[in-house]
Design a protein that fits this description.
Blueprint: H1 5-13, E1 18-22, E2 25-28, H2 29-45, E3 53-58, H3 62-73, E4 77-81, H4 87-97, E5 101-105, E6 117-119, E7 134-139, E8 149-153, H5 154-168, E9 175-178, H6 190-196, E10 199-202, H7 208-217, E11 222-225, H8 227-234, E12 248-251, H9 258-268, E13 273-278, E14 282-286, E15 297-299, E16 306-310, E17 321-326, E18 333-334, E19 339-340, H10 341-344, E20 350-358, E21 364-369, E22 374-376, E23 379-381, H11 383-391, E24 396-406, E25 410-419, H12 428-437, E26 448-451
Parallel strand pairs: 1-10, 3-4, 3-5, 9-10, 9-11, 11-12, 12-13, 25-26
Antiparallel strand pairs: 1-2, 5-6, 7-8, 8-18, 13-14, 15-21, 16-17, 17-20, 18-19, 20-21, 22-23, 24-25
Helix pairs in contact: 1-2, 2-3, 5-6, 8-9
Amino acid sequence: MRITDALDQHAAQRPTALAVADGTARLSWGDLRTAVDALAATLTSQGLQVGDRIAVYGHDGAATLVAALAVLRAGGVHAPVDHTLTEPEIAALITALGTPWRLDVPKGASVEVALSLVATGQARTPDPLGSGVSAFLRLSSGTTGAAKGVLISHASLCDRVLAANRGLQLGPDDRVLWLLPMAYHFAVSILNYLHHGTAIVFGNALRATGTATIAREHHVTFAYGSPWHIRRLAELPVGHDLPATLTRVVSTTTALDATAAADFRTRHGRGVQQGLGIIEVGLPFLSPGAAGERPGDLGVPLPDYRIDLLDEHGEPTAGPGELAIAGPGLFDAYLTPWRPRDTVLHRGFFRTGDRAERTADGGIRLLGRLKDVINVGGVKVFPQEVESVLDAHPWVVASRVRSAPDARLGEQVHAEVQLKPGHDVATVHDELSTWCAERLAPLKRPAAYTVVERLAMTASGKVIR
């Protein structure tokens, strides 16, 4: 079974029912299948072959959704590209993932706009999982430095959306208010809605009042966003309410702070569930969203998943330890270096790099990350990636990037820099901000810089974290 097969089922059974809403654009399931099939045929005529990896670049919306589904429909491997990336970052991503084609969707494009594949210069390679088996490929770390891609097959995608929906319980009568970036939330979210016939309403407006208007207009039943979106919606002024049809709200990407959850409940009379999505795993956790739920309280795993906590030696422990997860729909391989799933898993479990503990009711509470990741408004920022950009500046001897709290985005990037002699500390912020603006996506850029006399280093010359 291919992950896009469900499109035929919904188009046949409910051809006129709403599938996608994006501004003034409305696509029924019949319309969506027609648009996807037409573009898939065009891409094939332009040279796409089964197993080809396609870097799909575009802003969130109906046209980019159609492009991604058309790539899958034509037998290609969808490699999403964040539209906020700079051209050097996109070039690094294309090199890291070995995508021979790039497909750009112009901002504001309609689903009827003519799209063309552009050759990237990367060599076409056979599908390492078998002809036509692979479906999705995404970087698991930064687009510079030692990046590795997560490769997922059609079969694994089908397995993970079925497992996820055991908790989400979405169906043809639901309409999802979509607020997250598709480049990072596709393999267990967008494809889950497609599989189960749930309409997607793109609602990430410039103002929260605009998002609320979209939600009311389309009578959404479910909302999926980040803690940042939850905070924005909790602050909606009187008269700009969310619709009564909205019965469930899920926050993901990073721990939802208790204040935002409480404020949302007070303003809208609904709790917020905390979801844990992992590109290698899927959606193994969805909290109850009860009043008083603490940040990181994930509850018990969804029915199809098993969890364990591991000590520093990889052995099961009753106390806090590294969260490990087993279940259906796990990724199939890391691309670079090539590592099939079975060589990565630890006794059948994926080690997440998250530190967690068991709660009294048998649930799981996240305590923090073992690996160094900064989560800025739903975008994962890897310090090494930012440091490599800063260290390339002619003024900089060395840098160390860390997380700092941010009331709006949850976290922000903060950089400590050691400068070469003779440079004016007063101009560092402007100089490095301009440098980073040309090389990093907005949410990856440091919000603040601290100049230090010397950064502590190991004997091999690496900055000590």
